[in-house]
Amino acid sequence: MSLFVLKCSTNEVTKSEIEEISKIKNDLELNVEKTYCWINSMPGSQPKFHISGKFAIPKSDNADIADIKLMYVKVFQDSKEIYYIQPKIIQNLANNSLEITYSTIQGLLVKRELNKKNKLTVELIFSLNDNEYKYFIQNVIIEEAL
To answer: Where would I find the H helices in the chain?
Structure first.
């Protein structure tokens, strides 16, 4: 004999909670290999924010992966957009996947609102057949080159 105990409660869901839940819903499947964010604080130059990453989009019956393009990368911290980037992109079509490497080659000026100690959420924005698709990478640590 099994006994299942269920608890019912009522919770009011706010608009911001709904937006946050929908914000982290990914539109496509990716195999993220790496995502790096760092600040170059080496003496002799202005501090610069850098981001780079590599991932693969597996072959799909629903779409031709060769037609998928990474258009932009957004960087968020504490639900605030900090950067909107059009990165340097290298695409390689392998047997069963599309491999994409992206980077900000020169780096970006460090914005005042960026807190080096807080983690980031990275949003990858893709285009396929005039439609936009998003993928979110959460809890990205900012490293610092001194």
So the answer is: 15-23
**Who's near 30: CB < 8 A, 6+ residues apart?**
55, 56, 57, 124, 135
Q: Summarize pLDDT for 48-101 with one digit per residue, the tens.
A: 999 999 999 999 877 788 899 999 999 999 999 999 999 999 999 988 899 999
CA 41/CA 49 separation, integer angstroms: 9
- For 14, the token pair is 């706010």
What is the model's pTM? 0.81
CA dihedral 101, 62, 76, 83 (to 10 degrees): 50
**Token pair in block for residue 128:** 């396929």
Q: Compute the distance between CA of residue 108 and CA of residue 97 in angstroms, rounded to an integer.
A: 30
82 is a domain residue: yes
Q: Which domain holds residue 119?
A: 15-145
Domain membership of residue 5 (yes or no) is: no
